[in-house]
Each structure stands twice: as structure tokens, then as C-alpha cells.
Design a protein that fits this description.
The structure holds two protein chains of two kinds. By secondary structure, chain A is of the alpha+beta class. Chain A is 67% helix and 11% strand. Chain A is built from twelve helices and six strands. In chain A, the strands form two sheets. Chain A has a four-stranded antiparallel sheet with strand order 3-4-2-5. A two-stranded parallel ribbon of chain A has the order 1-6. In chain A, a hairpin with a 1-residue loop joins strand 3 (78-83) and strand 4 (85-93). In chain A, helix 5 (131-159) packs parallel to helix 7, helix 7 packs parallel to helix 10 (266-294) and helix 9 packs antiparallel against helix 10 (266-294). The longest helix of chain B is centred in the C-terminal third of the chain and has 56 residues, at 359-414. In chain B, the strands form six sheets. Chain B has a four-stranded antiparallel sheet. Chain B has a four-stranded antiparallel sheet with strand order 3-4-6-5. In chain B, a hairpin with a 3-residue loop joins strand 7 (177-181) and strand 8. Helix content of chain B is 52%, strand content 20%. In chain B, helix 6 (146-170) packs across helix 10 and helix 12 (420-449) packs parallel to helix 14 (489-524). By secondary structure, chain B is an alpha+beta fold. Chain B has 14 helices and 19 strands. Classes of the chains: A alpha+beta, B alpha+beta. The interface between A and B is large, with 84 and 81 residues.
Chain lengths: 321, 531
């Protein structure tokens, strides 16, 4: 009765494709670094300070007119953007020279200007981040990403062998880099919630990686005669259905959030949608091949003496073939 | 492993029922829940400011100003110490330089006497307050020790916190959060506030009130040219009005200070909004003396170094109360009265972060979040049902519902705050929660294919998948914990729902689903598993 569109047993030779995939990932990683270095990230006001005002007007406003009247306030660069409906406008005012007081003064001028020219304008959201706080937020955010990477690799290292830890971290760095690269390429706003999304991607990708690693570790104990490359292929194939199903369900619910959810967290959701794709890719094509290069063979020496383990491979041979 | 004695089933269902009961209050309005009898649960999920609307203000106490104030009063203390005991020590150029009080000795031979005299400044026995250095050239510097500085700033923050609380309470805002944050910051969160500007105005003033005599001998024009007598200064008007002076020449000496005020109320006098104030006994006596000795002079009422008004003293005011008038509206008179009642801040506060969300936007966000959750849930449930069939897919769907109910229940129980990213966390959990079920089901299929009986396949499927589930979920939990620790506001909300989601997921996927399938298996004893 169940409708299975993923074949029960696949035997895709993933390890054969490891070179082109690793090469492609290295190229994309380097491109991401270059993009971030030269194109930069479009930091939101949380990280560079400034003001964000979301307004709703009664009539759809003339954006050009609004832009020129706000630009005339002498507040430097003022960016306007339709946000959701045609009556909803997002106004971004850059960080003002001076201290905290100048930021507040800028909001006041925008408020006065808009209230004067648009009757019944509703200020739906006002965010002002001073220069001091934005620096701290960026620093704390970077620490959060760094510490979570360290914490999860310690966990993997404790639970598995060190090679698995390296494989997982390689995949995580890959995911983080490529996400930064995409954000730089599309100049999507990069703020605290983007950083939270990156941490979630780290968690998700790791979740995926751990599932495959668990199977690899198990299969390494079962099939001692098989080559490492075969064991890795077998493990990825055995968990492939699960990897795809979980990726799909997560993608489905995030799509619902992306399409129907509030506009405010669209960037956050977008980053996570991308993360599900890239995380699944890196699990299969990055973290597992790294194990091959590091030549992982856990507990080889002591287990060889243990003759009692012989019963286990016999049971599972049918599936492994 | 599939052995579920009745007590175990009862316990599992009990947990689910408890989750359901805890989450029920969220379906009703706060007012309805308040009126429930005492034995029913009343804990509701708190909505974050981004969902219910409100203002979040992070204020910073101007610690430089705190230190400057302390140093300025230290100048007076040093002067007094040098004149003490009737034997004056000669000095010149006494003043504040940078973060120290500095002066030069007239006679370098006074070094020993100076160090004895200044040692008396260190009255605090538990810790040294001042570092005193006497240079060879007769230059003496007195600086605050680091611990004294920190203590001073900390006191100022505590005091500010109290004043901020009083000011906000005075305007009757409901359920504000006022917390100290870090060394020199105060977080103010006011839910449901439509006009964050009124709060900012209320907190943006130090509100140091003082009464000074006007310098009647120097004209404003002279003062503007710089011809100011030493005891006077030029001050701007607080609320400049056409037809009235924009600046005043005021004597620096404070005749009566605002700290002697005990009450202030807005009222009307001759059809004009004014603020009526009352002094304590000390203030009343001083005010009486000043007005008695200076009839026909003008008394400047000064707020934060700006002159509100400078009425002429027609007769001595002995009752200890008076009126401040100065072109007020009803609103501004009320605001001033609130500020005066609450007292002056020890140092100015600046807004370093502001996040205000209108209640309408919050309501829109909740609505959009609800739609996204329902759509996400339906999509995932339909997928699981189609992919794993009615038995196993159905079990996963039921587990998903139980999971959501448990998340809501735990969030209510913890009194956690649900934010917009928190809703995103729930939607993400919906997608990822089935992962554990998928792991188990795929494992069971593997076991079936390797030739195991249904019972053995079910049994070892759950057992084998368990390890992977723990590993996979623990890593997500670690990420959520770190996000919680480093995150602020809304991001924390995301960490909370994701973290809670991971824990409830492990319960529903491993224990609850296993129970469902065990009960189903015992009843039907199928020859093959429909997975």
C-alpha cells in the first residue's frame, strides 16, 4: 500500500564520483571565499548599525517620490523596498556618523517626514541598532558559529573515531562557506537570523552526516573483507532512502514557511532551504569521501581476535550483497 | 523490546494527556483563562514582542558621565582636605584632567603633609578608593582605583534601574520587563506599546531639577559676547516659545535641588497646564529662605541644564509647595510631573538598541505563522502517509500530532516566550521530527529484507535505530543550546522551540511510535509488515 518511489536497494558508486565532486566543492568553496572577500556580505543593520523602518501607507506610494524626499533629509544613503504588499515599504537608513544619539535623531526625521507627506501612515516596525551594539552582535554571532562547530566536532570525536570528526567538520565548513558565498553572490541580507539559519544548517547537515557515519561504523565491523570504498558506498546507499525522505519532508515544511510564512523571516527560511540541499550534498559527497582519504578502520586490531563477532556478518550478508 | 505492560502504556498516554492539558490554555484568551478554577492549568505561552507588538529598548548608562561627576565632587573633597585642620597647604591649578584630579604644590616641602591629608580620602576600609601619587616636581594626581570606578558605575546602574522602573510604572504600562544587562545597560521591554517615542522621551531625560537665582546684573547680550561673571552661566530655554527669551543668565549656585521634592502633580492654574510640586521639610525651609531673601528677584526653574521658566518672586513662599508654569500642554505637564515624582537619573541614558513592532504587524505574523505551520504539517503528513502506507505512515502522523501538542505543552509549562523565529523552529521541527520515524522504518525494512520475522524486525529495527537517533538529535540539541546561550531575543526563541522539539521528538518517535506499533502488532499479528 505504501507508495515507494525510491528504489529499495540502490548501488550507486558514490565513491567513484568523489574526485569531481570534491574538486567542484573546492572550486565553489574558493569562489565563495573570493566572493565574500571582494563582493562582501550585505550586512543588515544588526551587524553594521543603522535604522530599519517598515511602514504601511493607505495608498500605494510612489517609491521614487518617497525616495527623493527621504534622501533630502541628509541622512546619507536611504534604501527603499517593497515588502510584501504594495502598501508595505521597508526603509533602511545607514549608520549615522556620531554616536547613539544621532541614530535616534535620524529615525525622528524620517518619522516626521513620512507623517507629514502621507496621511495615516502606520509605522509597523522600527529597529535602531547603535554602533556599539552592532559590533557586539556580530562578534557574539561569530563566536556562536565557531563554538558550535567546535562543540559538535568534539561530540563526534568522542562518539566516533577522529577521522569521522574531520569528515564532519569538512562537511560543515563546506556548508558554511557555500552559504556565505550564496549570500554574497545574491547580496541577500546577512543578519542575526541568517547566522541562526547557518547554525541550524550546521545542525541539520551534521544530523545527516551522523546517520551515515553510524552506518559506516556498523558496516566496517560487519564486513571486514570489503574494501573501505565498498563499505562507504554500501553505507551511503543503505541510508539513501532515509536521507532523501528526511530531506524532502524538511524541504516541504520549510517551503510552506517560505511561501506562507511572514515576510520578516523570509531570508532566514531561504538560507535554511539552501542549507537542506547543500547539507544533504555535503553529507554524501564530502564527509564520506574524507573518511576514505583518512583511511578509517575502527577497532581493527582488537576486534580481529574476537572470534565471537563472526555471527554478525552472516546475518546481514543477504542485504549487503 | 516490544513488551508494553499496561502501566507503561498508561504512563506514556499520561505524558501525552499532560501535554494536551498543558497546551489547552493557549486556545483561550488570557481573560478566560484567568477566570478558570484554580486546579486547571493556566500557564500560557508568552508571545514575544515581535508577535504581540511592543517596544524593546536597550539603554546604556553614560558611565563616563558617572565618573566625571565623581571626579568633580572629588575636586571639592581634595580642596577641603588641603584646607583641613586650620593649616592650609598651598596649591594651584586644582582641577580634573582626563580621569584624574590634578594639582601642583606651591611648596614641594609639603609633600608629607599632603599625603597625610589626602590619605583621609580613603575612608572605605574594605577597599582602596583612590590612587594618590606625588611627583618630584610637586604635581599631585588623585585617580579612582578600578574597583572604585566599577563600584560607582554599578551603583549608578542600579539607581537608574530603580528610576526607570518608577517612571515606567508611573505611566501605567502593563507588564513591562526592566532588567539590568551586563555592566552598564538596562533592558526595557514594553509589550503592546503603540508609541515607543513616549517611552523614549520619558527615559531620555535625566530630569535633574534645580532652582537657581537669575543673574539680573548681566544681560543676555553681554553674556553672549562672553562677558560672564564667574558665578554665572548662560542657559538655554527648556521649551523655547516665541515672544519669550531663548536664553537666560543664571547663577551657578543651586539654591534648592530636586532631590528635596516629595510630590509633583499636573494641574490647571488660570486655564494653563502647570505642575504643582511639594518639598520635604529641608527643601521647604531652604525654599522659604531663598524666596524670603530674594523678593523681586527671578527664580529660574532648571531641568537638565535648561530653564523651564524664571518667574519673579513676588512674596516669600513658606508652605513648601509651588507651581512650575512654562507653556505646557496637558500631556507635557503630565510627563514632567511623572519625571519629577520618579526622581532624577544619576547619569544620562542613551538608547543603544531599539526594536519596536506594531501590534498589527505582530498579529499578521502570527496569522502567517499559523498558516505556514498547518500547510507544512499537512504536506509532511500526506507525504508520510503515502510513502509508508496507512499503518506506519499513520503512526508517524499521529506521532507528529502528539509531538506538536507536547511542544506547545512544554513551552507553556516553561512559560517560554514564543517569537517569530520560534514559529520557524516549530515548522522546522515538523519537517525534521519524522526523521527519527524514517530512520526506524527504514531499519525495519532492512531487517525484513534480511529475512527476519515481523516481530524480530520491529524489535531490532527500533533497537538499532535508537543509537543513530540519539547521535543525530544530540548534535542538533548542541547547536540549539549554543544558539540559546549566544543568541538574543528572537534568536533565543528559535533555539528554545528547536531544543524542545528535539526532546519531544525523541519521546514521540522512539517511545510513543513503538507503543503504537506494539499494540497494533499484538492485536493483528500480521504475517508480513506493511512497511
Amino acid at each position: 500500500m505504501a507508495f515507494r518511489f525510491i528504489p529499495d536497494t540502490t548501488s550507486i558508486p558514490f565513491m567513484k564520483t568523489r574526485l569531481p565532486c570534491l574538486a567542484a566543492s573546492v572550486v565553489m568553496g574558493v569562489l565563495s571565499i573570493l566572493l565574500v572577500a571582494f563582493n562582501g556580505l550585505n550586512f543588515g543593520i544588526e551587524f553594521q548599525g543603522g535604522t530599519l523602518i517598515e511602514v504601511r501607507t493607505e495608498q500605494p506610494p510612489d517609491l521614487g517620490e518617497m525616495r527623493s524626499s527621504l534622501s533630502g533629509l541628509g541622512l546619507g544613503e536611504v534604501a527603499l523596498q517593497e515588502f510584501g504588499g504594495p502598501n508595505d515599504i521597508l526603509i533602511r537608513v545607514g549608520h549615522q556618523e556620531g554616536g547613539e544619539v544621532e541614530q535616534q535623531a535620524a529615525v525622528e526625521r524620517v518619522r516626521e517626514s513620512l507623517s507629514g507627506s502621507y496621511g495615516g501612515v502606520e509605522f509597523r516596525r522600527v529597529e535602531v541598532i547603535g554602533p556599539k551594539v552592532s559590533g557586539e552582535l556580530l562578534q557574539d554571532g561569530l563566536y556562536a558559529v565557531l563554538f558550535s562547530l567546535i562543540a559538535v566536532s568534539i561530540y563526534i570525536w568522542l562518539r566516533f573515531e577522529w577521522q569521522f570528526g574531520v569528515g564532519a567538520v569538512a562537511a560543515l565548513l563546506h556548508d558554511v562557506l557555500l552559504t556565505l558565498g550564496l549570500f554574497s553572490l545574491l547580496q541577500l541580507q546577512f543578519d542575526l537570523s541568517t547566522l541562526a539559519a547557518i547554525l541550524t544548517i550546521v545542525g541539520y547537515s551534521l544530523n545527516d552526516t551522523v546517520v551515515i557515519f553510524d552506518r559506516v561504523r556498523e558496516n566496517l565491523r560487519r564486513y571486514r573483507a570489503k574494501s573501505l570504498s565498498d563499505v562507504l558506498d554500501l553505507s551511503v546507499n543503505q541510508t539513501l532512502a532515509r536521507t532523501i525522505v528526511t530531506g524532502l519532508t524538511t524541504f516541504l515544511s520549510l517551503s510552506a514557511l517560505f511561501i506562507f510564512g511572514p515576510e520578516v523571516i523570509r531570508g532566514f527560511t531561504f538560507a535554511m532551504l539552501w542549507g537542506v540541499i547543500i547539507g544533504t550534498y555535503s553529507t554524501i559527497f564530502i564527509s564520506s569521501p574524507v573518511l576514505l582519504y583518512l583511511n578509517v578502520r575502527p577497532e581493527a586490531a582488537p576486534a580481529d581476535k574476537d572470534k565471537g563477532a563472526g555471527a554478525v556478518p552472516a546475518k546481514a550478508n543477504a542485504k549487503g550483497a | 523490546m516490544l513488551n508494553f505492560p499496561p502501566w507503561k502504556i498508561a504512563a506514556i498516554l499520561g505524558v501525552c494527556l499532560l501535554g494536551l492539558i498543558m497546551s489547552v490554555p493557549n486556545l483561550f484568551s488570557r481573560e478566560t483563562v484567568e477566570s478558570w478554577p484554580g486546579f486547571l492549568p493556566r500557564q500560557q505561552i508568552n508571545l514575544g514582542l515581535d508577535l504581540q507588538g511592543g517596544s524593546h529598548l536597550l539603554l546604556e548608562v553614560d558611565s563616563a558621565a558617572v565618573v566625571r561627576d565623581r571626579l568633580e565632587s572629588l575636586v571639592d573633597e581634595v580642596r577641603a582636605a588641603l584646607r583641613g585642620d586650620g593649616q592650609t597647604i598651598g596649591y594651584r591649578n586644582l582641577g580634573v584632567q582626563g580621569e584624574q584630579v590634578v594639582f601642583d604644590l606651591r611648596d614641594a616641602a609639603d609633600r608629607d603633609r599632603v599625603s597625610t591629608a589626602l590619605a583621609a580620602l580613603n575612608t572605605d576600609l574594605t577597599q582602596r578608593q583612590f590612587d594618590i601619587e606625588i611627583g618630584d616636581n610637586g604635581r599631585v594626581t588623585v585617580g579612582m582605583t578600578d574597583s572604585a570606578r566599577q563600584q560607582r558605575i554599578s551603583q549608578a546602574v542600579d539607581q537608574s534601574l530603580e528610576i526607570v522602573r518608577r517612571r515606567i510604572d508611573e505611566v501605567g504600562t502593563r507588564e513591562p520587563t526592566i532588567q539590568r544587562q551586563g555592566a552598564d545597560r538596562i533592558l526595557v521591554q514594553v509589550p503592546g506599546e503603540r508609541d515607543p517615542n513616549s517611552i523614549k522621551r520619558l527615559l531620555g531625560q535625566t530630569a535633574a531639577l534645580s532652582f537657581h537665582l537669575l543673574d539680573m546684573n548681566t544681560s543676555v547680550a553681554d553674556a553672549q559676547r562672553g562677558a560672564l561673571p564667574p558665578g554665572s552661566e548662560l542657559m538655554a530655554a527648556y521649551n523655547p516659545q516665541p515672544g519669550q527669551p531663548a536664553e537666560y543668565v543664571v547663577r551657578k549656585r543651586v539654591e534648592v535641588a530636586g532631590e528635596n521634592l516629595v510630590d509633583a502633580q499636573p494641574t490647571f492654574q488660570q486655564n494653563e497646564a502647570v505642575v504643582n510640586f511639594r518639598f520635604d521639610s529641608i527643601g521647604a525651609r531652604r525654599f522659604g529662605d531663598v524666596t524670603q531673601q530674594n523678593v523681586n528677584q527671578a527664580l529660574a526653574i532648571v531641568l537638565d541644564n535648561k530653564v523651564i521658566s524664571a518667574p519673579r518672586i513676588n512674596e516669600p513662599i513658606l508652605g513648601g509647595s509651588g507651581v512650575i508654569s512654562g507653556s505646557f500642554t496637558v500631556e507635557s505637564a503630565n510627563e514632567l510631573a511623572v519625571l519629577l515624582r520618579a526622581g532624577a537619573l544619576p547619569a544620562p541614558l542613551t538608547v543603544v538598541e531599539e526594536r519596536s513592532v506594531g501590534p498589527d504587524l505582530g498579529a499578521d505574523s502570527i496569522a502567517a505563522g499559523e498558516v505556514a505551520s498547518v500547510v507544512g504539517f499537512v504536506l509532511v503528513a500526506v507525504f508520510m502517509f503515502v510513502y509508508y502506507g496507512p499503518r506506519f505512515g499513520g503512526a508517524a502522523c499521529v506521532a507528529l500530532v502528539v509531538n506538536l501538542v507536547l511542544i506547545l505543552g512544554v513551552l507553556s509549562l516553561l512559560g517560554a516566550t514564543l517569537t517569530l523565529p520560534g514559529i520557524a523552529g516549530i515548522v522546522l521541527t515538523i519537517g525534521m521530527a519524522v526523521d527519527s520515524n524514517v530512520l526506524i522504518f527504514e531499519r525495519i525494512r532492512d531487517e525484513v529484507q534480511s529475512g527476519k520475522t515481523p516481530l524480530a524486525a520491529l524489535d531490532s529495527g527500533f533497537r538499532e535505530a535508537m543509537r543513530t537517533i540519539v547521535d543525530a538529535n544530540l548534535t542538533t540539541l548542541i547547536a540549539a543550546l549554543i544558539l540559546f546561550y549566544f543568541g538574543t531575543g528572537p534568536i533565543r526563541g528559535f533555539a528554545v522551540t528547536t531544543g524542545v522539539g528535539v526532546v519531544t521528538t525523541m519521546f514521540t518517535a522512539v517511545t510513543f511510535t513503538r507503543m503504537l506499533l506494539a499494540v497494533w502488532y499484538r492485536r493483528t499479528r500480521p504475517a508480513a509488515l506493511p512497511v
